[in-house]
Amino acid sequence: MKNIINSLKYIMMSAVIFSLTSCEDYLSPDPTAAISSETFYQTQEDFDLAVINMYDAIAGLNSTNSNDNHSLQVEFYLTEMRSDNTRTKAQEGEAAQFEFFTIESTNGIIDDYYRSFYDVIFRANSILDNLGNIQNSAAYEAEAKFVRAYAYFNLVRLYGDIPLVNRGIEITDTSTQFTRVATSSIYDLIQSDLNTAILGLDNSYKTRASKAAAQTLLAKVYLTLGVNYLEAQILCEAVMTSGFLLEPDFKDVFYNELNDEIIFAIGYQPDSSADSQNFSAEWLNAVGRTSGVNYLTENAVAFIDANGGDRKDYSYRIDTGQPTKKQVVKYLPNGDSNLGIDPVSSNPTLAGNDWIILRYADVLLMHVEAIMAGGNETNVPAALNSFQQVRNRAGLTDVVTSISKQELLDERRAELAFENHRLFDLIRFGEAMNVLSDHSTEIGGSFSSSDLLLPIPQREINLSNGQLSQNPGY
Amino acid sequence: MMKTKYINNLYIFGLALAAFTFNSCDDFEQFEPLGENSIEDETPPNALFSYSQGVGLDDEWKTYTFSNQSASATTYAWDFGDGNIGDGLDEENTYPGEGTFTVTLTASDALGQMSTYSEEITIVEPEAPAAIIPTILESSFEDNSLPDGTGDGRDSWRNSDLGGVIQITSSPVYEGSQASKFPSGGDRIAYQELMVTPNSDYILSYFYTLKTNNPGSITVSVIAGGGHTDLTAALAATIEDFEGTDQSSSSTYVPVSISFNSGANDTVSILVTNQGEEARIDSFSIALGD
Question: Among B51, B199, B200, B260, which would you mutate to test the A interface (most chain A Cβ atoms within 10 Å of its Cβ)?
Answer without folding.
Answer: B199
